[in-house]
Design brief:
Elements: H1 16-43, E1 46-48, E2 55-57, H2 61-68, H3 72-105, H4 113-139, H5 145-152
Antiparallel strand pairs: 1-2
Helix pairs in contact: 2-3
């Protein structure tokens, strides 16, 4: 019986490319989503003092006032009720319909299933096409607002339309 050499545990390098691809999205998400939410929650623990921008720490007094004193409590409970109705309609109506359509469209033997799938996908594609068309109009050297805006900012020389634009005689 021969003795096996001890297994050498080589440490795998961390895949740096993952960080490179995730970092920009994480940065944008943090700047435009996380920071405003945290800032809003932090601000909610303060109350204004006087006319200026002076504030003082209020703790949870603002939340107690929100749920217990008029007119704030009526608006808060009404908004909460509307959100719950919206959630229930989404959860009990839209999700089951979407799931049912997905199951029906994946069944074997369904005639014209490709046509049904295409019809259901048209609204998603339509918004992309409309956005592209709007950008095309905005970037048009003939009537678009981008060229005029850049000329107003005195950087009109930087506007260079693509080769597919034909000069008008």
């Amino acid at each position: 019986m021969s003795a096996q050499p001890p297994a050498i545990h080589r440490r795998r390098r961390f895949p740096v490319h993952i960080v490179v691809f995730i970092a920009p999205a994480l940065l944008i998400y943090t700047v435009f989503m996380i920071y405003p939410i945290v800032s809003t929650v932090a601000t909610s623990f303060y109350k204004p003092v006087g006319v200026g921008a002076q504030t003082t720490f209020a703790g949870i007094d603002n939340y107690i006032k929100l749920v217990s004193s008029r007119p704030w409590d009526v608006r808060f409970w009404g908004a909460l009720q509307h959100n719950m109705v919206f959630f229930l309609v989404q959860f009990l109506v839209q999700n089951p319909i979407g799931l049912l359509l997905a199951v029906l469209l994946t069944r074997k033997g369904l005639r014209a299933s490709s046509a049904y799938r295409s019809l259901l996908y048209v609204p998603a594609m339509l918004s992309i096409v409309i956005a592209g068309f709007i950008w095309q109009l905005m970037l048009s050297p003939l009537w678009g607002i981008v060229k005029a805006s850049m000329e107003t900012l005195h950087v009109g020389a930087l506007f260079q339309p693509g080769s597919d634009w034909k000069a008008q005689p």
